[in-house]
Amino acid sequence: MTVMRRLPILFFFWLIAAVPALAAQQVLPEFSEIVRDNSPAVVKIIVQHQAGRGGQLPPGAEEIPEYLRRFFEYRGEPPQQRQRMSMGSGFIISSDGYIVTNNHVVDGADNVLVRMSDRREYDAEVVGTDPRSDLALLRIGASDLPALTLDTEDRLEVGSWVLAIGSPFGLDYSATAGIVSAMGRSLPTEQGENYVPFIQTDVAINPGNSGGPLFNLDGNVVGVNSQIFTRSGGSIGLSFAIPSAVVRNVVAQLKDKGRVTRGWLGVTIQDVDKTLAESFGLKRPQGALVSQLAADGPAEKAGLKPGDVILRFDGKDIPSSADLPHVVGLIEPGTTVSVEVVRDRKHKNVKVKVGGLDADDSFALSSDTGGRDTGNRLGLVVENASPEALERFGISGGVVVRQVNPDSVAAEAGVVAGDVITLIGSTPIKDVAAFERAVGKLSAGDSVPLRLIRRGAPLFIGLKLRD
């Protein structure tokens, strides 16, 4: 074969080898400009605690048995010293010295020092903190500072490129990049509160990054790094950031009032599973099922009822119960919004005036025992709830399950002894007679929701009668 004949073949194979490399050069983003333009507004936060205060194990500790680790603290001083130092990150949001970081970075601090990229240092004032969102607002006495822009588009998607800048393990102004792994991730606090729809990423985040910014490719801040999932204390590619929509809301309130008030609905909710969806006439599991109302709360005043399934709130879809607090919490108290619910298998719109979270006094229900027994076709032995039980539960009527027959419909649905049944379908259950009348109206093959109180907590269970 002549040289001239070989050339097209060689060129063909070279093209095959070169195309992936050329494509990668065109697709992969360039982060250097974002880092160069924005690093001056990222700060290191050095926090001083009295001995015995503040919070995390020294660096290097292995196999730390925590599910989700707050990860900002890096102590460079031995524990026997009178002062302890911890470090985190933050970023300037206005030229007059306002700085955003995590609440857990400055929680319990005696002194907060802010170090700029040019090595200037300032004592910081804590303007306000919000433990529920894990955000804090600081201010330093300086002007004409570089500042970052909080994203207002809220268009971040799974697969979007993102970049973090911070000081992991005290290594100043380190940049790491990755993609968004999930949106709207729910991570309830120890108090069971769930007001932050976290951004999950695979960006390498480590102790010291906490409070630092997460950027999109436009160089805008789309989140504040807050938590990681780890078993060893270091990054394994699961990090979580507070989205800019939450940051904007919290910062505005902290700057204006020094505290944060959230929208509050006054409901206890649960997820809708397949059986419940069928019993409520839904085509698929969706929405937030209202299992209990706070007395005189916004939901009760608006006419919402236990058994309502909230599908949309203020024009936003509610795919699951975890999504409802994310939406309600961002609404200004006093705002009247439209709520779409399913009630008695029919769609209904209700106007609700959203309250403030400060009005949410905690309440709990407690279990109790009852009186006499009776049998029924569901495989349950029930009795009237005693007046003491009704008072403790805060309910006007109900029957207590004394026995669940094996292999019965109720056993299959998950009803257990001690449950207090207060609702079958949309029928209130005041006593055994009402229970038996409601059960007697059920037909073979029916799917119906049962509202229970179990160990003090309201709960709906979907029950399907046999054909």
Structure description:
- Pfam families: PDZ_2, Trypsin_2.
- This is Probable periplasmic serine endoprotease DegP-like.
- Substrate binds at residues 104, 134, 208-210.
- Keywords: Hydrolase, Periplasm, Protease, Repeat, Serine protease, Signal, Stress response.
- Residues 249-345, 362-456 form the PDZ domain.
- By secondary structure, the protein is of the alpha+beta class.
- The chain folds into 4 domains: 35-140, Trypsin-like serine proteases (Thrombin, subunit H), CATH 2.40.10.10; 161-257, Trypsin-like serine proteases (Thrombin, subunit H), CATH 2.40.10; 263-359, PDZ domain (Pdz3 Domain), CATH 2.30.42.10; 374-464, Pdz3 Domain.
- Helices cover 19% and strands 34% of the residues.
- It contains 10 helices and 28 strands.
- The strands form 5 sheets. Strands 22, 23, 24, 25, 26, 27 and 28 form a 7-stranded antiparallel β-sheet that branches. A 6-stranded antiparallel beta barrel has the order 1-3-4-7-6-5.
- The model is unreliable at 53-81 and 359-375 (pLDDT under 50).
